Amino acid sequence: MEQVRFEQVSLAYDEGGPLAIQDISLSVAENEFIAVVGPSGCGKSTLMKLVSGLTEPTEGYVYVGGRQVAGPQKCIGMAFQASNLLPWRTTLDNVMLPLEIVQPYRSQMRRQRKAFEARCRDLLARVGLAGNEDKFPWELSGGMQQRASICRALIHKPKLLMLDEPFGALDAFTKEELWIMLQELWQEEPFTVILVTHDLREATFLADTVYVLSKGPGQLVARKAIEQARP
Ligand code: ADP
Ligand code: ADP
């Protein structure tokens, strides 16, 4: 099954203005891990906004889970370069957040709170954050904050996880630890991943398929299966 599909998608932010992305066609299979790399301004964020329904294509079609995207998608997990953890919430309560917002969890929250909490604790333990459930974001290192932010993105079991430079602010050692953490999460319980990154090594380490974007016509330069290139 296909999780995400772009059909000849172009987008101009201003009517008649320059195209932020131009004639992009691609498809991401269910549980595939893809990475999108390319220089600043090539349209990576725009691609993410199209998938999450925060903007619409000027031309072409975007499908997620077989349906054309219309409006913001709640059942996608997302994490960014900044962890965006809410400073007044503990680690556990930050990770719980999507369960308080996304259905059907939202309506089950009152009766199931204990079970949901147990799941959060379990997920936090899997990423090495056991014992940090009651800490606040400022008490966590940058790497720990990103671990928590990825837990938050996955807690409602989304079919699709979108990561925009999630490790961009971390030092090289912490980065590699988090690559392995993400890879383990994905191997244990697969989901579709779209990873946007500037780091080609990160892309080839993690992804099944790496898309290279450039600016302008024919911008989808390469789609390369990199199984063999994996370290
Ligand atoms: P990055 O390269 O890390 O994606 P950018 O500097 O390209 O960061 O973009 C950061 C944010 O600013 C994005 O959300 C993008 O949509 C917005 N942005 C980029 N260029 C413009 C522009 N010319 N006008 C308005 N918003 C822009
Ligand atoms: P990337 O994430 O790869 O840095 P973006 O998707 O942010 O690229 O930007 C692609 C192009 O679209 C850039 O030329 C950028 O300046 C432009 N752009 C991005 N967001 C906006 C916006 N909100 N309004 C106008 N132009 C934008």
Automatic annotation (TrEMBL):
Residues 4-231 form the ABC transporter domain. InterPro entries: AAA+_ATPase, ABC_transporter-like_ATP-bd, ABC_transporter-like_CS, ABC_transporter_ATP-bind, P-loop_NTPase. GO terms for molecular function: ATP binding; ATP hydrolysis activity. Gene3D superfamilies: P-loop containing nucleotide triphosphate hydrolases (3.40.50.300). Coiled coil: none annotated. Keywords: ATP-binding, Nucleotide-binding, Transport. This is ABC transporter ATP-binding protein. CDD domains: ABC_NrtD_SsuB_transporters. Pfam families: ABC_tran (PF00005). Belongs to the ABC transporter superfamily. SMART domains: AAA. PANTHER family: ALIPHATIC SULFONATES IMPORT ATP-BINDING PROTEIN SSUB, TAURINE IMPORT ATP-BINDING PROTEIN-RELATED.
